[in-house]
Write a structure and sequence with these properties.
Oligomer: single chain
Strand content: 5-15%
Helix content: 40-55%
Largest sheet: 6 strands, mixed
Structural class: alpha/beta
Strand order of the largest sheet: 1-6-5-2-3-4
Distance between the termini: 65 Å
Shape: elongated
Radius of gyration: 27 Å
Number of helices: 19
Number of strands: 15
Length: 423
């Protein structure tokens, strides 16, 4: 085996290296403190947040000391970058709760207990006690208004207007970098390409206060090949929190990746080696109908975010709904997950069984018994994967799935799950 790649080489072949300061390659030749920040503007990170997270993962794997910084302080202000209007200010209690939730999500990616443990910090620790006069004297004096106005995050808001509150965000982020340099000798900041202005401001503050050398590097923003925003679906944002986006829907988001995107997402968001990714890309090009690359991507990312059991269950449910898998092979966990994704009902099960026509009407797959009868006569109804005939349409206890369930299907894609209970 060859020597492991340097951090810059690893990021480069994965397409994760966008910008960096001059001389950073030599600087990273020895282990350095590297941080990325995550503002708790919601109760969960979303899939668009995964790139800086993976940047820290690669930095830790390359032997650097990584710091994940939760913005319990900066989250009270809000970064103006990428916004066309002022953010509504969140309460202290709300930001604290959101910061706790995000800390838990970051722990799924970084190793906080190994030989080179990651560090998790919250900038509320030093920003909330910071007095306004100290910020103006110790930080503000190092930046001219012209310097701050030239930053993209400010320029993009000048026409619509920007409050002094959001205008000052750059100073707070710069102060974070200085504070981490002084506390833990953190000398590299990592973030999205839209953060370049704020990040270089921190580097300048470190230099102007005589605190030493510092560098920044940025990762590309995730955009789909069709030009649409990454991480959005018809149902809204794709979150890492299972209560906001179920593991099945999370898995399905990746399975539905465009063939033009899947190779990039495999490089960006998984730790699969280069040869395996290139093999999956060849398969996607030669046999796109198999969607093997998409399934590998979905499995890897869902496992990382929700755990191996949740990923396996999500794969089971997806294989049933879209791959024609045998319903009788479903695990109890998959049936439970399925019940959160499709219409459900609960009915008593008489000893002699229950008529499928009643199940169809109870689950609204048919508007009436007459409509249900026509569906069965036309051969469009299935129970637990088997086509139902009018002469044999009684569901008995012996034919139920785990937990006493019957899975109904009308046509190719309309499903309902019925739990049948004894008297």
């Amino acid at each position: 085996m060859g020597q492991p790649l340097s951090l810059l080489d690893e990021l480069s072949w994965r397409g994760l290296l966008y910008q960096h300061t001059e001389g950073i390659g030599g600087w990273l030749a020895t282990p350095r403190g590297i941080y990325a920040g995550f503002d708790p503007t919601a109760s969960s990170l979303h899939v668009g947040s995964l790139l800086p997270v993976m940047g820290l993962v690669h930095a830790q794997r390359a032997g650097h000391r990584v710091v994940a910084l939760v913005g319990g302080g900066t989250g009270l202000i809000g970064d103006p970058g990428g916004k066309t209007a002022e953010r509504p200010l969140a309460s202290v209690d709300q930001v604290e709760a959101q910061a706790r939730a995000i800390r838990g999500q970051l722990e799924r990616f970084l190793d906080f207990r190994g030989r080179n443990p990651a560090v998790l910090l919250d900038n509320a620790e030093w920003l909330r006690p910071l007095r306004a006069i100290d910020l103006m004297r110790d930080v503000g004096k190092h930046f001219t208004v012209n310097y701050m106005l030239a930053k993209d995050s400010v320029q993009s808001r000048l026409d619509a207007g920007i409050s002094y509150t959001e205008f000052s965000y750059m100073l707070l982020q710069a102060y974070d970098f200085l504070e981490l340099k002084r506390r833990d000798d953190v000398t590299v900041q990592l973030g999205g390409s839209d953060q370049w202005g704020n990040m270089t401001a921190g580097m300048e503050l470190i230099r102007r206060t005589g605190a030493g050398d510092a560098h920044v590097l940025t990762l590309p923003l995730m955009m789909k090949a069709d030009g649409t925003k990454f991480g959005k679906t018809e149902g809204g944002t794709v979150w890492l929190d299972a209560s906001l986006t179920s593991p099945y829907r999370f898995y399905q988001f990746w399975v539905n990746s465009d063939d033009r995107d899947v190779g990039r997402w495999l490089r960006f968001l998984t730790l699969l080696p280069r040869g395996e990714i290139e093999e999956l890309e060849r398969g996607a090009s030669e046999h796109p109908e198999r969607r093997e690359a998409q399934r590998a991507l979905a499995r890897e990312v869902t496992t990382r975010v929700h755990g191996a059991d949740a990923a396996r269950v999500a794969e089971e449910v997806s294989s049933l709904l879209f791959g024609g898998a045998d319903a009788r092979s479903l695990s109890a966990g998959a049936i439970d997950a399925l019940g959160r994704e499709i219409p459900t009902a609960e009915l008593p099960l008489p000893a002699e069984g229950v008529d499928v026509l009643d199940l169809l009407t109870e689950t609204k797959l048919a508007a009436s018994r007459g409509a249900a009868k026509r569906l069965v006569e036309q051969g469009g109804v299935y129970v637990n994967g088997a086509r139902v005939a009018m002469a044999d349409r009684t569901v008995t206890p012996a034919g139920l799935l785990a937990g006493g369930h019957a899975l109904l299907r009308k046509g190719a894609r309309d499903y309902a799950l019925v739990k049948l209970t004894g008297r």
